[in-house]
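Subject: design request, 218 residues
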């Protein structure tokens, strides 16, 4: 029986979004992000959504308890009946405690946490090598999926651009921040026996096939 709640962890460039999409598609369960939940709550005009809107418009962080309340609202919707993937949440121990209490109160059981582990050198190549077509948005990688002509999109000849936050210095800072923020969360779930570690150094399709097989029997 597949767990009701799935949480994907992984450093920037680890491929957690890619794998979450594959799992979502295969099992027909929604992949829901904190940002999406907040925007939907605001758009729907729920009491929590209106309270979150005030915080967001003031440029303040939405408090954990408010976000958890919005998560509670979202996972109570019909499309989450057979399970769901939490994308980008929780990020802290306090948020993990909150999610655990919400799931328990709804009788949804414990989450299964997928931690996609990738060597730092490979993460750097994935992110620093990324180039995006300025015309059609096609994404290349100079190391793994280069264009036929350097700097030029194969599809429409558009110029390939590197995002400002894909510089090596910025990426190293993001990796350090992720490690500091998420390491305690990984240990938290490992201690509870809820963590499943995945070798993310392999091809995405290989990881997806293995993960779907595992989840089908979890």
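Subject: RE: design request

Done. Sequence follows.
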């Amino acid at each position: 029986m597949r767990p009701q709640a799935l949480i994907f962890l992984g450093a920037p460039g680890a491929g957690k979004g890619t794998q979450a999409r594959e799992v979502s598609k295969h099992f027909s369960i929604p992949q829901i992000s904190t940002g999406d939940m907040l925007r939907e709550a605001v758009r729907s005009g729920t009491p929590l959504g209106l309270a979150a809107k005030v915080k967001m418009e003031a440029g303040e962080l939405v408090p954990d308890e408010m976000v958890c309340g919005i998560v509670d609202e979202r996972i109570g919707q019909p499309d989450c009946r057979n399970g769901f993937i939490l994308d980008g949440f929780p990020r802290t121990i306090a948020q993990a405690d909150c999610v655990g209490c919400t799931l328990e109160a709804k009788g949804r059981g414990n989450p299964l946490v997928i931690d996609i582990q990738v060597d730092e050198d490979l993460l750097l190549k994935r992110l620093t090598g990324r180039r995006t077509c300025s015309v059609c948005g096609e994404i290349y990688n100079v190391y793994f999926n280069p264009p036929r002509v350097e700097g030029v999109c194969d599809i429409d000849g558009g110029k390939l651009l590197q995002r400002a936050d894909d510089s090596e210095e910025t990426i190293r800072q993001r990796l350090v921040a992720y490690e500091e923020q998420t390491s305690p969360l990984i240990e938290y779930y490992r201690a509870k026996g809820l963590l499943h570690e995945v070798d993310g150094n392999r091809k995405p399709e290989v990881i997806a096939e293995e993960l779907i097989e595992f989840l089908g029997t979890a």
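The first strand starts at residue 5 and ends at 10.
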